[in-house]
Amino acid sequence: MATWGAIVLAVVFAFVWETVLSIVQSLMLPANAAVPNWFHLLTRLNPKYFYIDANTLQLGNAAPFYLEPWFGGVIVAGWLLVSLGLAYVLFERSDLA
Length: 97
Hints:
The longest helix has 27 residues, at about 1-30. The protein is elongated. By secondary structure, it is an all-alpha fold. It has one domain. The chain has three helices and no strands. The relative contact order is 0.10.
């Protein structure tokens, strides 16, 4: 069961996440409008963007705290804690006998 969960998460973040973000961007945002900060946050929730520096984004003004490079570490730590917590709860509920 855990293997399937890991496979599903890998597929979602490797293939589906950017497609969903593209659809959201095309449906919710005007064609030539600047991309809002909340959209950049959704993009950075994908763990692979931990290594991308937020300063490379063309935001115009100063970047909000959740787009700063150090916040990528907070996102990855959150992913680790949620994953381990969920695994612990599922392990405790399982019948090992």
